[in-house]
Write a structure and sequence with these properties.
Number of helices: 9
Distance between the termini: 142 Å
Order of helices and strands: HHHEHEHEEEEEHEHHEEEHE
CATH class of the largest domain: Alpha Beta
Helix content: 40-55%
CATH architecture of the largest domain: 3-Layer(aba) Sandwich
Oligomer: single chain
Shape: elongated
Radius of gyration: 41 Å
Length: about 350
């Protein structure tokens, strides 16, 4: 018997129905999300009629019209100001030449010929520092920053207080700038092997050295508006002018100087010098300053008024110790001792201990 021929039917690939069905589900989901989003926006956002009604009501409101008028006026004034400033920048009368920068460096602590000499020297140095600035507009704020940064690098200038713009008042005039400066004031004169080095209250070395000569010092002191004390016993190299003298001995002297000035001690007992004894130059690794035995500050009064008299103060305020009396207690004890003195010479006053 003959065999029947059979025909093979190709089987569908696995997963075809699953993929096509999943794609239809994703499309249906996206469509549903879009429809839901549109319906939600229609429900939340106002209709066109509502928006038109709100705009009409706002325009008829007097407060809204006033605000709109003020805003429009501000915009117009801003545009006019910009146009005027642009025109002024192009005007030669408002061009700024660095050679026209006015300087006023007044050292208020000096008088007479010393003040004039210092003023001239400081202003010449500052003009040299500003000479290479390019010509610009007097309205340029960048030139103000450039002048400030350059001027404050001068060792004599503590800070630039402000910079004033000066505009021409007549057709032939020109614009200029006037930096208002704060000049550093010496607090003490530190005695070294060959010179007296001036240092201000921030321990900044000033660019003025005086030879260790009695006549030169007397002439310099006569040109000062107030007393300048000499500090003895500072060791180590002197930093360059304008640098900070980071020395514990200098810190001790300056803290002592502040106490003397705050208490106005010179009125009752003029102090000529501050001597430092047994004070290290630097602290240890833990930041502690170890004084030697009986180390501290010795105050030397004016020897023409109290010859041979010394005041053993002890540790200055910057290195104060609980084993000693406080600065206020020391000042009170000093006043009491001065009232009790029978003689003004060869007196040794120890203020370190309590009681």
């Amino acid at each position: 018997m003959a065999r029947r021929k059979t025909r093979k039917v190709a089987k569908p690939r696995k997963g075809t129905r699953v993929r096509s069905g999943g794609l239809r589900v994703v499309k249906a989901g996206l469509a549903a999300i879009m429809v839901g989003t549109i319906r939600m926006m229609r429900a939340v956002l106002p209709s066109g009629d509502t928006v038109n009604a709100w705009a009409a009501g706002a325009w008829h409101s007097r407060g809204v019209r006033r605000c709109a008028g003020v805003a429009g006026g501000i915009v117009v004034l801003g545009l006019l100001s910009w146009v005027m400033l642009h025109n002024l920048r192009q005007n030669d009368r408002y061009r700024l030449d660095p050679g026209r920068i006015e300087l006023s460096a007044e050292p208020s602590w000096a008088t007479g010929s010393l003040a004039k000499q210092l003023k001239n020297d400081i202003e010449e140095d500052l003009r040299a520092d500003l000479a290479d600035l390019g010509e610009t507009s007097a309205f340029d704020d960048d030139v103000m920053d450039a002048i400030t940064s350059r001027v404050e690098t001068n060792p004599w200038v503590r800070r630039v207080v402000r910079i004033e713009r000066r505009f021409p008042g007549d057709p032939e005039g020109f614009s200029s700038l006037l930096p208002v400066l704060e000049i550093r004031r010496p607090a003490v004169a530190i005695e070294t092997a060959e010179h007296y080095v001036l240092v201000d209250g921030d321990a900044i070395v000033l660019p003025l050295k005086l030879p260790r000569d009695n006549d030169a010092w007397a002439h310099f002191e006569a040109s000062l508006s107030e007393r300048l004390r000499i500090v003895r016993g500072v060791e180590g190299d002197v930093p360059a002018a304008g640098a900070h003298w980071g020395n514990e001995q200098v810190s001790a002297a300056l803290s002592m100087e502040r106490v003397i000035r705050r208490a106005k001690l010179d009125r009752a007992l003029p102090i000529h010098a501050i001597e430092l004894v047994g004070i290290p130059q630097a602290p240890d690794a833990r930041g502690r300053v170890h004084y030697q035995m009986n180390g501290g500050v010795v105050l030397i009064p004016d020897q023409t008024r109290m010859p041979g008299t010394t005041l053993l103060w002890g540790r200055p305020p910057v290195h104060a110790s609980t084993l000693e009396a406080s600065p206020n207690d020391k000042l009170e004890r000093l006043k009491s001792r001065l009232r009790e003195l029978d003689s003004v010479g060869d007196v040794h006053i120890d203020l370190r201990h309590r009681g």
